[in-house]
Amino acid sequence: MPPMTTLILHHDDCLNHDPGKMHPESIQRVRTVLDALERLPGTEKLPAPLATIEQIARAHDMEYWQGVINAEPNEGRVMLDQDTALSPGSVNAALRGSGAACFAVDQIYAGRAKNAFCATRPPGHHAETGKAMGFCLLNHVAVASRHAQAVHGAGKVAILDFDVHHGNGTQAIFENDATVLYISSHQDLLYPGTGHTDETGVGNILNLPLPPNSGSAEFRQAWSVLGFPALRAFVPDLILISAGFDAHEADPLAQLKLQFDDYDWITHEICDYAEQNCAGRIVSVLEGGYNLDALGACARTHVQALAQ
């Protein structure tokens, strides 16, 4: 029997979401990631399906989502806030992101994949139950978490977020739900201004804010001393990763100083834990990362570690 692979989920619908030429969340982001992952050993690329309304409704208010559908323009661009745009094709792009995450969960629980990486856009971790923000329309890890619980009986899900920005949407969706653990490392006092250490939910939220200009040592200490012990104490059935690569030192939107090796380190740490405690079940979803060279290299480092 051949060894199970790391799935790479993508659909070209994700290239149709166009927030504008000067917008940092550009179409080229996913093209860069896909180029970096081309012919990576131990991986298999599959098309991402559209998420169903049933899947979306577990994490999002349907009045909100119908409003997004209705607001999608036939041409040009509609701004939902100063950062978050709708263009023709944005709705299906977002649905492919959530659909990829749910499909990845299905494949892993069916034993047809070791783990998965969703190379999709727009990102998701700022989207709240009834609000788009921060480039995000649907919260893909939240949708996938609820899908895993509803369809596959996952009792507890851990969401690990190392994007440089705090995933306020993910925190807001789960802050009263002890069956989901959310751990986020991020730059302190950066957009969206949430993610302080006193935001603990019902004991299921752990924020690890890092001062500007923090680098590898501070990042690894935060996860080693606080993040991973919390994960071990929680004992999840599934791990979801909000994989943002904008904490890399080359990224233009923040001031953390992570290196490529840091993404290799944290991915291997997560994989080692998952292999021993939750049958290796990991689904990683692309979030931020806005320097194209760094994004491609970081994504390759991350997926290479997943595939090993």
Question: Could you explain the architecture of this structure?
Answer:
- This protein has 308 residues and is α/β, with parallel strands linked by helices.
- It has a single domain, classed as Arginase, Chain A, CATH 3.40.800.
- 38% of the residues lie in helices and 16% in strands.
- The protein is built from 9 helices and 10 strands.
- It has helices spanning 28-37, 53-57, 62-71, 90-109, 140-152, 168-174, 216-234, 260-277, 292-307, and strands at residues 6-10, 43-47, 78-79, 85-86, 115-118, 157-161, 180-187, 205-210, 238-243, 282-286.
- It has an 8-stranded parallel beta sheet with strand order 2-1-5-10-9-6-7-8, with helices on both faces. The chain has a two-stranded antiparallel sheet with strand order 3-4.
- The two termini are 17 Å apart.
Please describe the biggest sheet, giving its number of strands, its sense, and whether it closes into a barrel: 8 strands, parallel
CATH superfamily: Histone deacetylase domain
SSE order: EHEHHEEHEHEHEEHEHEH
Strand line-up across the major sheet: 2-1-5-10-9-6-7-8
Distance between the first and last residues' Cα? 17 Å
